[in-house]
Amino acid sequence: MNTLSYGLLAFLAREPGSGYDVMLKIQPFWQAKHSQIYPLLAQMEENELLSSHWVKQCDKPDKKVYSITDSGIRKLKEWMYKPLPDPVTRDELSMKTFCMWMTDRDNAIDIVETRKSYFIRRLESFQSMQGKVTEEHKKFGTREFYDHLLIQKGIFNAAAGLEWCNWVLGILRECDYSEPPVLVKP
């Protein structure tokens, strides 16, 4: 079982859904493609962590709806007690920032502006979600309380990313160069 498998179980523990439904729900937390999700769902069904049934649809192909089993619930609960590993960071912006000395200022600004736009969209999305959270749902112990915590985490992360982008853009716009530096081979 990998982290994505546990994430799929977590969403199916809340409510049954098709592979497509679960893929849409997990995207804000974990970037995964259908080519990753569907084999995991099939494997977990084979391991009796999930069950499924087909739902006939009129204008669309029939869909397979998954539900978590008691074994799946036990597996998910066991995972909750496993130690949390350090996070894995894979951010192309960090790698491009590391290489910005190889490009011109305008391109560097474009790179950071692109990520700034992303953070603005994320922040607006999370703030919209937060606006729908009632005071009742902010009480410890409800499922919605943990949704509230995750939405707030998303707001903090997006706001921090946006702040960093604005800081970098301020520095880049003060720089006095327009041509990329000449690369000298050692």
From TrEMBL:
UniProt-listed SUPFAM superfamilies: Winged helix' DNA-binding domain
Molecular function via GO: DNA binding
Domain of life according to the entry: Bacteria
Protein keywords: DNA-binding
Domain Transcription regulator PadR N-terminal per the UniProt entry, residue ranges: 8-78
InterPro entries found in the cross-reference section: Tscrpt_reg_PadR_C, Tscrpt_reg_PadR_N, WH-like_DNA-bd_sf, WH_DNA-bd_sf
Domain Transcription regulator PadR C-terminal: 89-172
Keyword flag Cell cycle: no
PANTHER family listed in its UniProt record: TRANSCRIPTIONAL REGULATOR YQJI (PTHR43252), TRANSCRIPTIONAL REGULATORY PROTEIN (PTHR43252:SF4)
Record protein name field: DNA-binding PadR family transcriptional regulator
Annotated organism of origin: Paenibacillus favisporus
